[in-house]
Design goal:
Strand order of the largest sheet: 4-3-2-1-5
Number of domains: 3
Distance between the termini: 76 Å
Order of helices and strands: HHEEHHEEEEEHHH
Structural class: alpha+beta
Number of helices: 7
Largest sheet: 5 strands, mixed
Radius of gyration: 28 Å
Length: 273
């Protein structure tokens, strides 16, 4: 089914829309049966209860947010970065995303393309290239990289549901190779029977057992994100550590103020202390 939600967030959004539709029907029935006065009384009750629920919910959310330890999902961060980049660099000529199927499975529509970007993805050189450590070292010494183990992927960001339900749907990402889809004009067709979901991404079915493309590619991306997150945390830790020692921070600030700029660098600074 085209409109079937594929995630818990999508299902929650459908529930919210359903509640809004029920409220709208209830207001129409109230207006028909009781007129303007009945509708006004119903609206006043809704507003009163909504304000109370909103205040209580805000207090509970603030308490939970304050007590909750921040979590870092590196894979999700990478997925969000791809979505943001794809939505800003979408070609204007692409429309819907399809899978071609085969002689026993018909073509079917996946959704509407709302973003597209291209990236270079990792493959594992050591395990899958069949090269010895000596060969890898020789290639590294000669600044050579086996390009067949660094792949180029096209990322399509899409939504299944149509307007206005798409406003509440989370964007989805399918990652394909350049030769796995048609040209980026009009409706784009992925050459496959179906797709699979791994690590929050969607892939053509024939990539399911390609560990180098899926598992190792995602692991390498998360590894890069971990290094970036570590550097950010180190900056925060250093700033807090300096702030804890007020005497040291005061002395450090005074040194910065007393230090005389000189083309001789640190030597002149040391003489001025």
């Amino acid at each position: 089914m085209d409109g079937q939600p594929e995630s818990r967030k999508d299902k929650k959004n459908i529930i919210i829309i359903g509640v809004m539709v029920i409220i709208g029907i209830l207001m129409i029935l109230t207006f028909i049966s009781s007129g303007q006065e009945g509708l006004s009384a119903l609206m006043n009750k809704f507003i009163r209860y909504a304000l109370i629920a909103g205040v209580v919910g805000l207090i509970v959310w603030a308490i939970m947010k304050f007590m909750q330890k921040p979590k870092v999902n590196l894979v999700e961060n990478d997925r969000r970065d791809i979505i943001d980049a794809g939505m800003q660099s979408k070609p204007p000529m692409v429309r819907d995303l399809y899978f071609t199927g085969d002689k026993e499975h018909g073509e079917f529509r996946v959704g509407t393309i709302i973003g597209y970007c291209q990236l270079m993805s990792y493959k594992d050189i050591d395990l899958l290239a069949g090269l010895t450590k000596t060969q890898i070292k020789e290639m590294a010494d000669n600044n050579q990289i086996p390009s067949q183990y660094v792949i180029r992927e096209d990322c399509f960001i899409y939504k299944r549901m149509g307007f206005p339900f798409s406003l509440f749907e989370q964007p989805k990402v399918i990652r394909t190779l350049e030769d796995e889809h048609s040209q980026l004009v009009g409706d784009v067709k992925v050459y496959g029977v179906s797709m699979i979901k791994k690590f929050g991404y969607y892939w053509p079915n024939r990539a399911h057992l390609d560990i180098s493309r899926i598992d190792i590619g995602v692991i390498r991306e998360a590894w890069r994100g971990q290094i970036h997150q570590f550097l950010k945390d180190m900056v925060a830790i250093n700033q807090r550590a300096v702030g804890l020692d007020s005497e040291f921070k005061k002395d450090l600030d005074q040194r910065k103020l007393l230090k005389i700029p000189s083309p001789l660098g640190e030597e002149a600074g040391r003489r001025g202390e």
